[in-house]
Amino acid sequence: ARHLPIESGSIDFVYSSGVLHHSHDIERSVSEIYRVLKPQGRAFIGLYSSRSIHFQKRNLLSFLSGKFSRQHREKFLSENTEAAWVTEGLKNPLTQIFSRTECEKLFNQFKTVKIRQGGGLGIPDKPIIRWLKPLEKSEFFAKFGLGIYSTLTK
Asked: Which pTM was predicted?
């Protein structure tokens, strides 16, 4: 996404969900999306949310591991997420999480930016806690969901 072989101003709509938070240069990826969009073009971008209960748990586990630097936390997060994402022995190289403020800054070149929190809470589908699954769709718990979704207009 950092080097799209697409003519500038030629795309009506860009959809990216669950991808850009693995980019080593997300700012460049967002600039490329902006570049290829037509005037009034729209984009929908889903990123991982720093408010997510799932990622707050990962941050706590990182803290409890005894290393407190931001670099360690980011490395821990990348190494302990996307467990099923292994291809030919390669694991997830990077996972980043974002706040609403970080998204607003990341997408500041767009004319309109609408951001909402949502997605599941990461509640396992196990009989003892399955009854919690409907809570994921409530307005209150959506604020702690896995994703932060941005609808953007150039």
From this structure: 0.79
